[in-house]
Write a structure and sequence with these properties.
Length: 67
């Protein structure tokens, strides 16, 4: 499948994949992540049930806090 991940075109060698699987597949390790598909926020509790489809625009960002 071909998606745009964080503004970069990516080819993923899987036909089906959820946001949770994509996070694991790409080895995102940060605890505080914000996820969106096609501009729509995907809540943490919904990541395991939300599918990524061919052509989707996906954003996975980590939140940084400081002081």
């Amino acid at each position: 499948m071909r998606i745009t991940l964080n503004n970069r075109e990516e080819t993923i060698d899987r036909e089906q994949l959820t946001i949770a699987e994509l996070i694991e597949y790409k080895s995102f390790k940060f605890k505080l992540l914000v996820t969106k598909i096609n501009g729509e926020l995907v809540r943490k509790d919904d990541r395991a049930m939300t599918s990524v489809k061919d052509g989707d625009k996906v954003v996975v960002m980590h939140m940084i806090s400081g002081g």
